[in-house]
From TrEMBL:
Family affiliation: Belongs to the XPO2/CSE1 family.
Keyword Cytoplasm found: yes
InterPro entries xref list: ARM-like, ARM-type_fold, Importin-beta_N, XPO2_C, XPO2_central
Coiled-coil segments on the chain, per record: none
Compartmental location: Cytoplasm; Nucleus
Protein name, entry field: Importin N-terminal domain-containing protein
Amino acid sequence: MAEQSALASVLVSTLSPDAAVRRQAERDLAAAQAHPSFGPLVLQLAQDAAQNKAVRQSAALSFKNWIKANWALEDAPTPLSTATAESLKQSIVSIMISLSGEQALQVQVGEAIAIMAHADFPDQWDGLVDQLTSQLTPDNYVVNNAVLQTAHSIFRRWRSEFRTDTLFLEIKFQTDSILSSGAALAPEQLSLLLRTLLLLLQLYHDLNAQDLPEFFEDRLAQFMPLLLKYLDFSPPNAPVEADDDEDEEAGDLEAAKAEICEIAQLYSLRYLDAFGEGGYLGPFVEKTWGLLTKLGPAVKYDTLVAKATAFLGTVVKMPSQRALFDNQQTLEAFCEKIVLPNMTLRTFEEELFEDDPAEYVRRDLDSASSETRRQAASDFTKALMEQFEAQITQIVTQYIGAYLQQYAASPQTNWKSKDTAIFLLTSIATRGSTQQQGVTSTNALVDVIKFFSDHVLADLQAAPGSIHPVVQADAIKFLFTFRMQLTKEQLLSVLPLLVPHLQNPSFVIHTYAALTIERILFIKQNGSFMFDQADIRDHAEGILLALFKIIESGTTPQQIAANEHLMKSVMRVIITARQGLASVYTTVLQHLVAILGEISKNPSNPKFNHFTFESISALVRFVTAGNPSSLSHFETALFPPFHAILQQDVSEFTPFVFQILSQLLELHPPADMPDSYKVLLPPLLTPTLWESRGNIPALVRLLRAFLSRGADQIVAAGQVTPMLGIFQHLIQAKATDQHGFDLLEALVEFLPLSALQQYMSSPVFVLLLTRLQGAKTDKFTQGLLRFICFAAAIQKSDVTPDAVVGFLDGVQPQPGLFAQVVPVLLPEVQKAPTKDRKVVAVGLANFLTKSSALLSEPHARVWPSMLEALLKLFLLPIPLAKNTSAADDDANGLEVIDPEEQGYQASFSKLGASERPRPDPVAHVQEPRLWLARGLEEASRREPGKIPALMASVNPEFASPFAQYLREQGIDLS
């Protein structure tokens, strides 16, 4: 009981407004999570009605996160015992049902069940469906909804990877009976049953998503009329809604109808034979068309409109259904009744432009996830264009002309007409587009450049306030959308027009200007950026200062970091301007440091944070490349905020700080580690810093930088042992073993062997062989192969192939362990990743040609198999990759810095600008096969007769071509 009370206190403290209290509580909670009883304990807290609501909610969330971190994961921080796992599987459904009166708690437990099911269902939890269906009741729809919600969260992942007629029958029964007496239901009962209807439809969709189960196919005549019925259902005595009621959110009825449209679209795409031949496609098209013509402009219908038009668009695009729509009257009706009403800006969206501009921008830009009316209408127009391009172009062009005439007659009054015209033009002009490039191909019947010149350019040139801000934003957005259709010369001429818009107080306008500048500078031709530093030299400083002014106008850390588009534009300008910023870099750096200092007080926007650090890293990279003496200025400016971030443990920023510290240290000459860095190293070796996986890649890189610049100081300070402790921590976990190998390679490469000799057999190779024997994975085996070959391949006088053999043999009293381990690794040689093949090839070649131990027993018996593995590697159809040299071509070396392309990770985000190609550890070898041949020639001179005798045991399939190669090179091994 005391343990439960203490945990409740910790959970309360995690919600404290005091950052110090909150951080300490988070550390205490992390420590508690390591205890095997943590999960069951927080689950008990979530069920305890005597606890306050905040504790129960936090406990339920902690339970779900504990399940997510530990259930059936190989690298679980706290693996569950079999008994605990089975106990939870037996009780968790009934616990979830017992929380039916506490929806917030029930949702968390339901999501935990879904996580468990994702790992164990159906093979290791075959009773789950029975557990769920046994809880369904004839009349308690609170309980039923909990069961159905949980089932949906499970089955939407698995979909129809399994089948159960019992569940199918329940869906049929529940769907058939629901709302049968809707007129007599009280409002609260109706609301509950509408929720049930929605969940049943979602479950129906889940179970039909991958394939049409026989159960459903045989009962289409029962299900489809029900779906049509509910698509047209309207509650009795429904209130009359106000036009454009933006405050009313979509309810379960609207969501249920949207789900029906999705099901109809699914059947049209995947099961057209059953759906069409059964006579259901036509009625669904007719009913959906009727629904769309009746829906008002209220926001609550937006998703329904999107799903309904998506279904109609799917059918319209089908050549087999062309006859349904192939007449002028129908196409005109589609444009008039569906496209135009939903393309026109509503009062709600106009208010959004002023009152919540960030949401306006998000909805306007994120077409993939924002189910807006405009996006739905645009997508439907494009669907019509696939079958009826000429007709739709002609119809819509007439409307565009009419709207432009209305605008010309009274620009201040009829600005919405211009807005609609631009969106209509965009929808019919676009044939192909990507998020990264904008429109990539256009409708040949639409002259985009002429429209831009005649109707858009003047709005770009207009002074702020002289035209409606929405129209000006539309002009910038048009350039953003069709940027790929303009030549470099045209883009250079309009780029200066965007700079004044960065100073516009309108959030939408200056945001669109920033992102348009950024995307224009990102354009590539033949793999290289279209614009270079010469193109932007005259504008870079002005653009950056304007962007900084907007960003720094925020009065709180959250406001400063609110608009990631601005900082992304800063980043792109720095990357493009490069050494062109040499004369103003101190000013740019001053602004970046000031912004960093503010946002580190309360990090709130991961994208903004990433772009900020990427901007700093890019500035360091390019300015120091042109002016190496600037390095000290960067260190002077950056060390204070970096120290503050590390001292305050701003966990969101520490991986970025470690990467830039690595970048700065790597810019120093070899064997040059300034005192300002030496003081950083001891804290980096504390185990607690390595507990966060998000820190690990950056920390390993930083340790590599320390080793490459200060190996002697590290040895003198007695810091080798702590580094080996870190290696041990990393190598034992499957999730981090690759970083362990990375650190171990650095230790071997940069430290004198005398500092490592006593550790190499034990603990290093003892740890490696223990992992190989007890927890081997393909990744680990590949890592071990690369490390052993790396150690044999590098040019380091005190680390030789014989030394590596000795490390392995030293693990046990009797020599010969190397010969026992090698056969386990050789099958991995041909699987080596392309980037590792050269290292593996040179390492194997050195073992074969430079190791005396391998030319005598007990090791000589593996020599032929090692040569055969290497010859197989040479015969691969993919040529051996040559590692990139350290030389960095700054014109094109920075390929892509676009975090959203890479995908954000909560754990670690790499700074692209900070990365430089590592030196090739085997740069002294140009051609590995020739290296092997000449090495064998030299070994044969040292040990006459041994090499030909060993080669005689190699499979002729591989030995014969190599013998021919030796003859061609004039090499005689006899």
